[in-house]
Amino acid sequence: MAAEPGAGTQAVERAMSLLACFTDESSELRVSELCTRTGLGQSTVSRMVASLERLGFLAQDTRTGLYRLGPTQVTLGSVGLNSSPVFRAARQTAQNLAHVADLGANLAEFHGDQLFYLGNFEGGKSPKSFTMAGRSAPLHATAMGKTLLLTQTSQYIHDYYAKGLGIAYTPHTITDPFAMESALAETRSRGYATEIEELAFGRACVAAPIRGRGGAVVAALSVSGPLSELDDERRQRELSLMVIEAADEVSVALGFIVTRAPQPRVPLG
Q1: Measured between alpha carbons, how far is 47 from 95 in angstroms, rounded to an integer?
Q2: What's the mean per-residue pLDDT of the chain?
Q3: 125, 202 in Cβ contact below 8 A?
Q4: Which pTM was predicted?
């Protein structure tokens, strides 16, 4: 019997809704939990889960019976990441930056009113047991987010806050569009953005823009770590020079011609 119009699309959407149930907070789920989260019937979920497992999109723990994302997801994620010109241009530079700064080096781009992490590399003073690639974070509460806002219009900034996106994560978060415009003006004048306990207590970050061939900000590069590592003015200045030089290096690789006055060189490896 011929499939109903749109039946194939509906099946794909249902399969994607099942995969979207898996998050950092819920990385392993039972069929019953998938039914609850998607509103789909148990027979439908069981059938789709079996197909997704067969194709490698899901894997089942034989001891607990719980499902988690499978190896095919890792393969596709790797292909997607490696197809990014920004990631390819920045990977080695970011890795060198993390080594020299001894802190975390992060790479992100603008995506749907958020910043989207392309990758992170860890230094000794900012270790992580997980990858940031694929995660998102708010633009207004992060140094990289402010960097990505540099070439956005004033109207965009005000619309962002009007949508209710500029919520407070700590008392230090910028929750006013006019205050954000002032912060962005300062960022433009000095060439880097800062984040001091604006997203989380005890954390700080310094970020600089990565520009494409035409000069638009296409991504951001940062170093981040404990507040104690970035709260000193002299240390912040040292790190800012590292980040600016590293971001300029990536920008040049992407075809941008850097015209700012030379900064004192900080070797990156």
Answers
A1: 43
A2: 87
A3: no
A4: 0.78
